[in-house]
């Protein structure tokens, strides 16, 4: 694409160099510059891309975008584009360069505090069962058809996002399932993404280290529904879902889902087991008898979100019934780890108060013996939720093992002290508590004390394969630690 064509309708201060030069690639990582490509210098939280312009040019960059307020020395043969703010204008440039790729497929956005990953991956499985060509953008990994790509953020930056969508469109993907974080909405990373459908899961305590207050968190999440062009699906079991409905923050058809008959699509005759959940799903066009191969009402709600989406897209009930049979457990989400003992071990990503409470309530329904919960809280994140999670774990578990999650730059013992503020100094009769900073030892302790009929819940990290201590990522996988314990 010619630089002048790219910059048409995008404001800039001035261009030094050849406005008719061809840009064949674009990046904001100086290490990934292609010869003849463009480098966009972004001033981030910890790194300023303007410090790497020279490195980008040495790597072959033919065009450099930079902030006009920063003085940049000019190199002969390189074209420079001065912008007001490269970070804020990145979505405009990325979408234009990749020719608005979201318009070439059906975009389904999923937002909320919990459930985004599960719904996106469940819906992917269901659509694949219906022979659709799918892509997923999310927390665990990104998919284009059967190809898997690593992910860094729940929702990537605008340049990475548009490049991925362009690749998906070139692969003739028909539906793209996308987790949409509040960060992406607040920072405008998804400005030019054309969403056809939007799903709301729930809203609970999280990310208040980023949002000034909960109202801002809610208002930011609601932006997705104002952008949906064909339909919205909202969880009526959540008070903020009801608020979205009551305030009508959208202008397209609405489908509500829930566990009661005041929702448009709801479940009845629900029977839970450790194997999964059977229920009847009631829709405006009839009833679907279903078995969901993941236990708990959380996954009933997630399935209802998926069913509502397929229904909104015009799928017939027999097709939806077939699609439900394709749902498989999601890695790190109520994942049962096979162990050579007569107790159950479950790994889950629950790292917010609401998620932890939901998981423990689900597990309690099929636990005959005692429930042992291993958990911690992340460092450099919202501190207010720590004692809340301590209280929840204490109230719903028989034994709790308080440990480290990703302490980051905080002292692990200090994080545990914050959690302990929610736990009584004198434990109630029958309650047991262990405080073990080392997560590996904490998991081993929980497994060692588990008896037949007990369930061990290891919460907080789920699918993650690392632990961040200081600023360093160390390999650590909860499920792997469980398997190692029994192999020893």
TrEMBL record:
Entries under Pfam families matching the protein: Mur_ligase, Mur_ligase_C, Mur_ligase_M
List of residues binding meso-2,6-diaminopimelate: 381, 405-408, 460, 464
What is the recorded post-translational modification? Carboxylation is probably crucial for Mg(2+) binding and, consequently, for the gamma-phosphate positioning of ATP.
Which residues take part in binding ATP? 112-118
- The main location class comes to cytoplasm
Q: Which residues carry this modification: N6-carboxylysine?
A: 221
| Mur ligase C-terminal domain: residues covered | 332-462
Q: Which UniProt keywords apply?
A: ATP-binding, Cell cycle, Cell division, Cell shape, Cell wall biogenesis/degradation, Cytoplasm, Ligase, Magnesium, Nucleotide-binding, Peptidoglycan synthesis
- GO MF annotation list: UDP-N-acetylmuramoylalanyl-D-glutamate-2,6-diaminopimelate ligase activity
Q: Which SUPFAM superfamilies match?
A: MurD-like peptide ligases, catalytic domain, MurD-like peptide ligases, peptide-binding domain, MurE/MurF N-terminal domain
Q: Which InterPro entries match?
A: Folylpolyglutamate_synth_CS (IPR018109), Mur-like_cat_sf (IPR036565), Mur_ligase_C (IPR004101), Mur_ligase_C_dom_sf (IPR036615), Mur_ligase_cen (IPR013221), Mur_ligase_N (IPR000713), MurE/MurF_N (IPR035911), UDP-N-AcMur-Glu-dNH2Pim_ligase (IPR005761)
Positions of the Mur ligase N-terminal catalytic domain? 23-93
Q: Where in the cell is it found?
A: Cytoplasm
Q: Which family is it part of?
A: Belongs to the MurCDEF family. MurE subfamily.
Functional note: Catalyzes the addition of meso-diaminopimelic acid to the nucleotide precursor UDP-N-acetylmuramoyl-L-alanyl-D-glutamate (UMAG) in the biosynthesis of bacterial cell-wall peptidoglycan.
Q: Give the protein's recorded name.
A: UDP-N-acetylmuramoyl-L-alanyl-D-glutamate--2,6-diaminopimelate ligase
What is the phylogenetic placement of the source species in the record?
Bacteria, Bacillati, Bacillota, Clostridia, Eubacteriales
Q: Which gene encodes it?
A: murE
């Amino acid at each position: 694409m010619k630089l002048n064509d790219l910059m048409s309708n995008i404001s800039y201060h001035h261009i030094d160099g050849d406005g008719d030069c061809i840009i064949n690639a674009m990046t904001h990582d100086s290490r990934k510059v292609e010869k003849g490509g463009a480098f966009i210098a972004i001033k981030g939280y910890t790194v300023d891309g303007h410090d790497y312009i020279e490195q980008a040019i040495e790597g072959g960059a033919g065009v450099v975008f930079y902030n006009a307020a920063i003085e940049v020395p000019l190199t002969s043969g390189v074209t420079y584009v001065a912008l007001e703010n490269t970070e804020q204008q990145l979505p405009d440039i990325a979408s234009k360069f990749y020719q608005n790729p979201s318009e070439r497929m059906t975009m389904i956005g999923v937002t909320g505090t919990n459930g985004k990953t599960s719904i996106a991956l469940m819906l992917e499985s269901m659509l694949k069962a219906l022979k659709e060509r799918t892509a997923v953008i999310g927390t665990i990994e990104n998919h284009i058809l059967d190809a898997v790509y690593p992910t860094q953020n729940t929702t990537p930056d605008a340049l990475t996002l548009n490049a991925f969508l362009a690749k998906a469109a070139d692969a003739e993907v028909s539906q793209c399932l996308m987790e949409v974080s509040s960060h992406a909405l607040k920072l405008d990373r998804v400005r030019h993404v054309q969403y056809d459908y939007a799903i709301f899961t729930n809203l609970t305590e999280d990310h208040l280290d980023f949002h000034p207050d909960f109202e801002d968190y809610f208002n930011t999440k609601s932006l997705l529904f104002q952008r949906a062009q064909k339909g919205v699906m909202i969880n009526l079991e959540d008070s903020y879902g009801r608020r979205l409905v009551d305030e009508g923050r959208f202008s397209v058809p609405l489908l509500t889902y829930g566990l009661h008959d005041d929702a448009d699509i709801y479940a009845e005759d629900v029977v839970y087991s450790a194997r999964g959940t059977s229920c009847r799903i009631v829709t405006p066009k009839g009833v679907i008898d279903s078995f969901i191969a993941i236990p708990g009402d959380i996954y009933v709600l997630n399935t209802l979100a998926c069913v509502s989406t397929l229904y909104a897209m015009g799928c017939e009930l027999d097709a939806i019934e077939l699609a439900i049979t394709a749902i498989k457990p999601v890695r790190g989400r109520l994942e049962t780890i096979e162990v050579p003992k007569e107790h159950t071990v479950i790994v889950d990503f629950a790292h917010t108060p609401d998620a932890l409470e939901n998981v423990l309530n689900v597990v309690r329904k099929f636990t005959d013996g005692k429930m042992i919960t291993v958990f911690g809280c992340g460092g450099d994140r919202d501190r207010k939720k720590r004692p809340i999670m301590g209280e929840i774990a204490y109230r719903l578990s028989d034994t709790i093992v308080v440990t480290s999650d990703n302490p980051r730059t905080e002292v692990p013992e200090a994080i545990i002290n914050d959690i302990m503020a929610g736990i009584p100094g004198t434990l109630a009769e029958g309650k047991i508590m262990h405080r073990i900073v080392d997560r590996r030892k904490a998991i081993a302790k929980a497994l060692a004390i588990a008896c037949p009929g007990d369930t061990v819940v290891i919460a907080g990290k789920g699918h993650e394969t690392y632990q961040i201590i200081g600023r360093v990522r160390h390999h650590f996988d909860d499920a792997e630690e469980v398997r190692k314990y029994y192999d020893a």
